[in-house]
Design the sequence.
């Protein structure tokens, strides 16, 4: 079942079509990646999903019903890209305050905050102020305040920026746990390697429009270029064939691209006929990074200001 | 609306729990009072220690030499004879004199050329004392020339004081004009200061939330309007708390004063002093009882609350559109401060002329009425004027809050360049 469904969302600003007719659905329990270059409209889209902005047109369904800003806000946890916390407020107090804003009672909020603090080894911070924390520490705190009320939908905008590898892993584990327990997670990022590692469903946006939608594997299959890597004991200098063309040859490693209708077996056959010992043969799928760059390439890197009537 | 309650609670308690709140609330009035106490003490002490060093007088005009007129306090002054101004300049210091007064021969109708010589500058009170002494001597000399007996003159000299009485339904009462003036002025200046101080706090708070990006987190849980009103109300409550503490402090000080006062009374010396003092006390309390205190208190609270709310929403809107840059904020705050300052100026006039057309206009116009009305509060204000003023103020508050909330909602999520006035107007009047 889709937890979240967007239909033809539009949000125009004075000089920008920030989000221009975007539709997609996110399944319950998905770890969903929302990708796109800077200024693609990701933040605007997320703000509509969190109820901060009203869409100009289009609709949002949450949990099968039309999105109700006030009621559903309590089921969403949002961690914006630019971290936001009260600098002068004590950390424990602040976490409880933010949890209560999400509709928890004081007792519930206290219990859950304590639970998360001990889980992430933050108990000693309770009476410190945010201004005493390092960037990574406040990142962890922000994460806790985002998930403390057990939201059905967790929206994380660049959650790992500023975290060292140890803490990044800690948070990553928690994200997997949350998804396992039924929470749906939306990631907004332009760090592709994280997306490949974590997400199972991605949407790529550019200039306010959705340009790609699918599972990580599906997208990779869609954009594969029939490139294979082959390792052999000895490779001749010149490989003349119409089965494949050589992309790159490096000692005993060969990167090749299938030509025409050829199949991987044709390649193996070719080498077997030549009596060359093949050590390994694997398909090379494009990285999301490649796909991202290819899709976005050619468009202006920064959005220009348009006139909108 | 438990969430707006939460926000109000946070805004209120984080401010009230701060050390700086206690310091400004309790220490500032104490410091001001202490300051006055020191001034009074210095003034009192000054009177007694003034005459440690005497002043010589070279009296060529002969206004002091007449033995019939004994008006020289020899503890303070010493008549010097057989010296001229030039010769005595070199000597007076060795004779242990603070300085000397040179009175040349002059026409009694046009006494001038009197010079005070001294090593250091002469204090204002001493100068005034010398001037009055010489004036009196000249005056007595003139009486003598006209053949009027000074004693007789004293008998026929008259001073009258006018007792002002206010006729109300409950009968006539004595009033003290000065007291009404002070009460009006104090109320006006309090509202004026509170609107600026707490309005600025609202603005700072909003800007802080915006630049910390906490606003984005919070408005994903509550409506921006709730966040804005929560902040405004929370800070307003801090202001009311401060008033309450001040009132309690004044009460405590008043009950403690008699414990310290008897001592001071005795220092002031003379049995007359206590009598005068208790006379003043009685006059003040009698004067206070003539003022419509309940009405003043009610109007003060009303105009404080709605004046504050009206301006706080404007300050919040400004806070939401600026970034850390303080200069940007100052530019935008200026148009808001103008009517407050204008109100203050009109208020000072309204105290003197409470029924002038300017005072009436100022107390009806909603952007100045909270301050100006305080200038008229001790006088009888026609009930229709209060009603119109109150309705206009509440209406303005509602309208401005509605408009500024829309600027606020857009502003707190916009980063980067400060929007132009035109853009802000567009936000304010947008439908949605």
Sequence:
């Amino acid at each position: 079942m889709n937890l979240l469904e967007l239909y033809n969302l539009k949000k125009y600003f004075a000089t920008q079509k920030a989000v221009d007719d975007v539709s997609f659905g996110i399944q319950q329990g998905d770890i969903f990646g929302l990708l796109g270059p800077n200024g693609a409209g990701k933040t605007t889209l997320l703000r509509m999903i969190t109820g901060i902005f009203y869409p100009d047109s289009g609709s949002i369904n949450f949990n099968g019903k039309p999105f109700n800003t006030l009621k559903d806000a309590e089921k969403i946890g949002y961690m914006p890209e630019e971290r936001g916390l009260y600098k002068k407020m004590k950390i424990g107090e602040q976490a409880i305050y933010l949890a209560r804003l999400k509709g928890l009672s004081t007792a519930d909020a206290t219990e859950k905050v304590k639970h998360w603090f001990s889980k992430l080894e933050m108990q000693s911070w309770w009476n410190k102020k945010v201004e005493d924390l390092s960037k990574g520490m406040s990142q962890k705190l922000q994460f806790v305040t985002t998930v403390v009320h057990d939201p059905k939908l967790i929206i994380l905008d660049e959650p790992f920026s500023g975290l060292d590898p140890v803490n990044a892993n800690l948070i990553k584990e928690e994200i997997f746990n949350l998804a396992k327990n039924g929470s749906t997670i939306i990631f907004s990022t332009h760090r592709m390697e994280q997306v490949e590692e974590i997400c199972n469903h991605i949407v790529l946006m550019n200039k306010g429009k959705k340009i790609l939608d699918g599972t990580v594997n599906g997208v990779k299959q869609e954009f594969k270029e029939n490139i294979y890597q082959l390792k052999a004991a000895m490779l001749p200098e010149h490989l003349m064939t119409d089965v494949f063309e050589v992309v790159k040859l490096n000692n005993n490693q060969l990167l090749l691209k299938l030509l025409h209708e050829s199949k991987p077996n044709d390649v193996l056959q070719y080498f077997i006929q030549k009596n060359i010992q093949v050590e390994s043969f694997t398909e090379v799928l494009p990285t999301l990074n490649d796909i991202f760059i290819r899709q976005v390439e050619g468009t202006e890197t920064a959005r220009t200001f348009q006139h909108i009537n | 609306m438990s969430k707006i309650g939460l926000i109000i609670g946070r805004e209120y308690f984080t401010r009230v729990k701060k050390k700086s709140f206690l310091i400004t609330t309790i220490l500032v009035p104490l410091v001001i009072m202490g300051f006055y106490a020191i001034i009074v003490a210095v003034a009192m002490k000054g009177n007694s220690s003034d005459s440690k060093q005497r002043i010589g007088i070279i009296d060529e005009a002969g206004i002091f030499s007449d033995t019939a007129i004994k008006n020289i306090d020899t503890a303070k002054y010493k008549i010097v004879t057989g010296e001229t101004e030039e010769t005595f300049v070199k000597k007076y210091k060795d004779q242990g004199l603070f300085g000397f007064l040179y009175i040349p021969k002059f026409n009694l109708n046009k006494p001038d050329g009197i010079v005070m010589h001294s090593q250091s500058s002469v204090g204002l009170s001493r100068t005034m004392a010398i001037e009055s002494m010489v004036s009196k001597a000249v005056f007595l000399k003139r009486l003598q020339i006209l053949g009027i007996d000074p004693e007789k003159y004293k008998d026929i000299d008259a001073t009258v004081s006018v007792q002002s009485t206010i006729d109300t339904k409950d009968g006539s009462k004595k009033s003290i004009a000065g007291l009404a003036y002070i009460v009006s002025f104090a109320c006006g200046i309090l509202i004026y200061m509170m609107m600026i101080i707490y309005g600025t706090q609202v603005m700072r708070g909003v800007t802080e939330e915006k630049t910390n990006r906490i606003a984005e987190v919070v408005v994903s849980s509550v409506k921006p309007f709730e966040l804005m009103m929560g902040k405004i109300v929370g800070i307003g409550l801090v202001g009311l708390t401060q008033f309450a503490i001040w009132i309690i402090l004044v009460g405590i000080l008043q009950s403690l004063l008699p414990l310290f006062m008897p001592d001071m009374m005795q220092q002031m010396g003379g049995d007359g002093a206590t009598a005068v003092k208790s006379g003043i006390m009685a006059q003040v309390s009698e004067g206070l009882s003539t003022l419509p205190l309940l009405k003043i208190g009610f109007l003060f609270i009303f105009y404080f609350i709605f004046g504050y709310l009206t301006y706080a929403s404007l300050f919040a809107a400004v806070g939401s559109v600026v970034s850390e840059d303080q200069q940007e904020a100052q530019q935008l705050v200026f148009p808001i401060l103008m009517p407050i300052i204008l109100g203050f100026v009109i208020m000072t006039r309204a105290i003197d002329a409470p029924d002038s057309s300017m005072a009436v206009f100022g107390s009806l116009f909603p952007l100045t009425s909270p301050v100006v009305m305080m200038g008229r509060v001790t006088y009888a204000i026609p009930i229709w004027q209060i009603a119109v003023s109150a309705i206009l103020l509440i209406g303005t508050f509602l309208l401005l809050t509605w408009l500024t909330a829309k600027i606020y909602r857009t502003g707190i999520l916009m980063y980067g360049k400060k929007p132009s006035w035109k853009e802000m107007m567009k936000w304010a009047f947008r439908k949605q």
About this structure: The mean pLDDT of chain A is 85.
